[in-house]
Amino acid sequence: MAGNFQSLEAGSARARGARREAGLWVMWLSLAVGVLMLAMKCYAFFITGSAAIFSDAAESVVHNVAVGFALFSLWYSAQPADRNHPYGHDKIDFFSAGFEGALIVLAGLYIIYESVLKWLGGLALEHLSAGLWLTVAAFAINGALGGFLVWRGRKVGSLIVEANGRHVLTDSWTSLGVLAGLLLAWWTGWEPFDPICAILVALNILWSGIRLMRRAFRGLMDEADPEVDRVAREILDAEAARYAVKYHELKHRRAGRHIWMEVHLLFPDETPLWLAHAQATEIEDAIEARLGPGANVNTHLEPYHDHARVHGE
Predict the structure, then answer these.
(1) 119 and 259, same structural domain?
(2) The last residue of a domain, from among 220, 250, 278
(3) pLDDT values of the chain reduced to their tens digit, one per residue, 313 residues
(4) How big is the chain by its Cα radius of gyration, in Å?
């Protein structure tokens, strides 16, 4: 047991370090850009009094808080496995994504509340031209950054980075909705377009947050990944036919970039233990090679004909 633990730890230390370094610098970049965007939006709201721009700025506040938590989560997830956490700390990815999703939902609800209050209390928009240009800049910058973060998160296998990228893209779509509201109010002179677009933006924010929370919930509840299950069964069917064995009790779950899988292999009674172990190891290697470096497969060896008696079936 201790030897297996040390072997697993030694084999994954370099991957953890590379993942941490690949993710940390892009998260610091996201935080720096987020602070800049917040300053721009606050200034735009100050000079225009726009409810839509206020909604955009409120979402940016949430974004920066979420990035701070994501930075901590990224560092924590890269910590090595220990006796209290023998499977590592990767599941904090789901906590981070769920936390970010919850903040997005709260931001959406707050934006709706403030927009309705502003609409009922009277509207007075000023300096729309300057506000429009600042909003265009925010949309372009966040769109580019969000796309980059999603790409980078998928490349390094980090749900934290990918979730942050999707949040930045949400911020970009928010800015686009704000831009639509300001343009409609400017062109038509009907100022309620501003809070209406703010509310529509908030509804989109709510949907984005709910989807992120649902993804985090699925991960925390160890919901099976259909694609992982399909690939594993495809390989097991081929390998079982190759070695004349059977399998059952296939289970798997995902924790961050790692996939943990176990399966029972049934061998003919006359198969020597050394041969069964060698064939099981080759089957494990075949699955891990197909699923990638984050896959960890464990097999349980059983005799085929005596299986029912041992398990009391």
Answers:
(1) no
(2) 220
(3) 444 434 444 444 455 555 555 567 777 888 888 888 888 878 877 777 776 677 667 777 877 887 888 788 778 877 787 888 887 777 887 887 888 788 878 878 887 887 787 777 665 555 556 666 777 787 888 888 888 888 888 777 677 787 778 778 877 777 777 777 777 777 777 767 777 877 887 888 788 788 888 888 888 787 888 888 999 999 999 998 999 899 998 999 887 677 889 999 999 888 899 999 999 999 999 999 988 877 899 999 988 876 666 665 5
(4) 26
Contact call for residues 175 and 142 (beta carbons, < 8 A) = yes
Same domain? 92 vs 179: yes
User: Are 110 and 23 in a shared domain?
Assistant: yes
How many CB atoms lie under 10 A from the CB of residue 203?
13
* Structural domain count of the chain: 2
Q: Are residues 174 and 71 in the same domain?
A: yes
CA distance 139 to 142: 5
DSSP string covering 166-214: HHHHHHHHHHHHHHHHHHHHHHH--TTHHHHHHHHHHHHHHHHHHHHHH
The contacts of residue 79 (CB under 8 Å, 6+ apart) are 16, 88, 89
Looking at the fold, whether 304 and 240 belong to one and the same domain comes out as: yes
| Domain end call among 186, 220, 254 | 220
Please indicate, yes or no, whether residues 130 and 260 belong to a single structural domain of this protein.
Answer: no
pTM (predicted TM-score): 0.65
153 and 253 co-located in one domain: no
Where on the phi/psi map is residue 190: left (φ > 0), alpha (ψ -120 to 50), or beta? Answer: beta
